[in-house]
DNA sequence: TATTGTTATACTCTATAACTATA
DNA sequence: TATAGTTATAGAGTATAACAATA
């Protein structure tokens, strides 16, 4: 694979990520906050699990959750099993916002893929699944 | 396209971006600094052109270039045509670092795509080109 | 002793607003 | 007047180190 071909893959990823960033910004959120809400959509993880998932230090997640909590999108809950552990969950407002974001992101990504032929759209999904692993 | 299929595309983009972020961090750079060096690889843009390319405010680019300049990777040059204009170029150290980054990123992206069959690798490049436009 | 999470600190990144210099 | 770039300011995001509470 030539270096220009790597460029193309990287540029395409930036294009998708720019779409996500704009979707988040439209709701006055950062990309990281968007990812946090995405993680909480179907989970109630511990602080450590969030850090692992986002590849961040735990202290960074403390601040991240602080700001999301201050805005009313998430809530901390003490674990019943282990008094050291804190779990994080969406509030009703957070869930509503998450659903709006999902719709916005979906529209943005679909717009990006609208230029592809049906066979290519099928293929890009297969490839994306392979990359995700 | 179902929402789970959008998820797959988004997750694949995050995977590529995480590879880039790790490549940059390995050289003690942020993703934005990596993008800046990438832009300068084959151009000598004005501050305004960098801002347009990265989708940032010009004041953000001033700080970005300040920090890169302080580390010896880029240099500002006054335009001969228009005294208001400043162009930015790589230093020798910046070019060397950029080449190292290119190699690191290339290896990382290739590792991601190693699971694909040859026909798929060809296809992903075509699709990536379409998305990039 | 080891682990979970927070706090203190420092830096990068980013935008808005106000400014200077030039066109 | 309009444009290019900077500076001042404020806030978000991030890591490191030190810490408290719990296991």
Please give a quick description of this structure.
Chain A is mainly α. Chain A has a single domain (about 5-130), classed as Arc Repressor Mutant, subunit A (Orthogonal Bundle).
Shape field of chain A = elongated
Radius of gyration of chain A: 17 Å
Assigned CATH architecture of chain A: Orthogonal Bundle
How would you classify the helix and strand content of chain A by structural class? mainly alpha
The structural domain count of chain A equals: 1
Distance between the termini of chain A: 21 Å
Query: Which ranges of chain A are low-confidence, i.e. pLDDT below 50, for 5 or more consecutive residues?
Result: none
Multimer state: homodimer
Fraction of residues in H or I helices of chain A: 55-70%
Q: What is the helix/strand order of chain A? A: HHHHEEHH
Q: What is the averaged pLDDT score of chain A?
A: 89
Written overview of the protein:
The structure is a homodimer of 133-residue chains. The first copy, chain A, has 133 residues and is mostly helical. Chain A has one domain (3-132): Arc Repressor Mutant, subunit A (Orthogonal Bundle). Chain A contains six helices and two strands, in the order H-H-H-H-E-E-H-H. In chain A, strand 1 and strand 2 form a beta hairpin. In chain A, helix 1 packs across helix 5 (92-113). Chain A is elongated. The two termini of chain A are 21 Å apart. The model of chain A has no long low-confidence stretch (mean pLDDT 89). The A-B interface holds A 1, 3, 5-6, 8-18, 20-21, 35, 55, 102, 105-106, 109-110, 112-113, 115-116, 120-121, 123-133 and B 1, 3, 5-6, 8-18, 20-21, 35, 55, 102, 105-106, 109-110, 112-113, 115-116, 120-121, 123-133.
């Amino acid at each position: 694979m030539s270096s220009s071909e790597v460029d193309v893959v990287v540029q395409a990823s930036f294009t998708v990520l720019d779409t996500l960033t704009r979707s988040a910004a439209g709701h006055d959120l950062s990309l990281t906050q968007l990812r946090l809400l995405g993680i909480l959509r179907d989970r109630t993880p511990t602080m450590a699990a969030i850090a692992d998932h986002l590849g961040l230090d735990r202290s960074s997640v403390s601040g991240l959750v602080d700001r999301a909590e201050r805005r009313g999108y998430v809530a901390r809950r003490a674990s019943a099993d282990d008094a050291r552990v804190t779990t994080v969950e969406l509030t009703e407002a957070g869930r509503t916002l998450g659903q709006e974001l999902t719709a916005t992101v979906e529209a943005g990504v679909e717009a990006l893929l609208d230029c592809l032929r049906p066979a290519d759209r099928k293929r890009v999904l297969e490839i994306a699944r392979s990359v995700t692993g």
